Amino acid sequence: MVFSAPLPILTTYTRLVATRTSPGEVLDALHELTTTHFPLYVLGAARLPFKTNDWVSVQLGQNVFIHQSVPKGWWVEYAAKASRQYDPGLVMARSSLMAYTWVETMKMLDPVGLDRWWYELAHKYGMRDGMTCPVGGRWVVGFWSRKPFSHFLTEPLRVVIYGAASFAALRMDQLIGPNPPTMGSRTPRPTPRELAVLRLVAGGHKLGEIAKSLGLGEETIRSHLKKVQAKLRARNRPHAVAEAMRHHLIV
After folding, report:
1. What gap in Å lies between CA 129 and CA 41, rounded to an integer?
2. Most confident of 42-46, 80-84, 243-247
3. How many other C-beta atoms are found inside a 10 Å radius of the C-beta of residue 103?
4. Fold of the CATH domain 6-183
């Protein structure tokens, strides 16, 4: 397959996508472009929350749109894993490096253990390769393929794919407008006192020691810990410490 005139095709596509009136139609137009000129299917598009761990604000059909070509069951399993113990934000960051394909990203980073979960899950559903294209710091547009395709993608063709993804995301942003789940449900930031308690927990101190150090009662310390766990969407105290460190709230 040879694609020798990328810019005229992209120009035609931008005119076409501007006439689409729903996110599904935008993805269909993008899918038609990629399947016509590349061995590449559309995975979907998502407008990211302000915080990558704010998975409850991610709603299918509101700020996440999965294309009908995606193998059945993949999204359900992906969403379940992402909401429990895996960080989709890290996946996006790693798989979006330098317009690399998924296979190229795995070879470059050589992840082990849990860091391979998204790639192994894709393989489970027959998605052997793909690309993840970030757009404007808020959107991500994904593609998938039944076989590795990096040998086919020249630098100009990668630019075309990213360009098409960008126009699709811009049109979808116009269509769905402001995102109430993302804008209106931002979790309150932990207070300095709550972080002080969590910092002492991270240092291995017991509740009695923390209470004495801060001049508070143990029940007050427990209350602070419950509140900071809720704000960080943590399952327990060690998870809260890990989340606080990951967001650079404590060191």
Report:
1. 10
2. 42-46
3. 18
4. Beta-Lactamase (3.30.450)
Entry pTM: 0.68
Contact 3, 156 (CB under 8 A): no
- DSSP state at residue 125: T
The 10 Å Cβ neighbour count of residue 216 is 16
Q: How far is CA 9 from the centre of its chain?
A: 29
- Give CA–CA dist 43/191, Å, rounded: 39
Domains 6-183 and 187-246 share a fold: no
For residue 236, give the DSSP letter: S
Residue 144's closest CA among 135, 131, 153, 155? 131
Q: Taking 80 as the threshold, does the pLDDT of residue 183 lie above it? A: no
Rounded distance, CA 186 to CA 167, Å?
Answer: 28
Domain ranges of the chain: 6-183, 187-246
Q: What percent of the chain has pLDDT over 70?
A: 83
Structure tokens of 43?
């995975």
36 burial type by CB count under 10 A (0-12 exposed, 13-18 middle, 19+ buried): exposed
8-state DSSP, 6: H
- Topology, domain 187-246: Arc Repressor Mutant, subunit A (1.10.10)
Q: Which residues, in sequence order, are bridge partners of residue 45?
A: 65, 141
Mind listing the pLDDT tens digit for each residue in 204-229?
A: 899 999 999 899 999 999 999 999 99
In the chain, beta strands by DSSP E: 41-47, 64-66, 129-135, 139-145
**pLDDT tens digits, residue range 123-172?**
999 999 999 998 877 889 999 999 998 888 888 888 889 999 999 999 99
- The answer to whether 232 touches 243, Cβ cutoff 8 Å, is yes
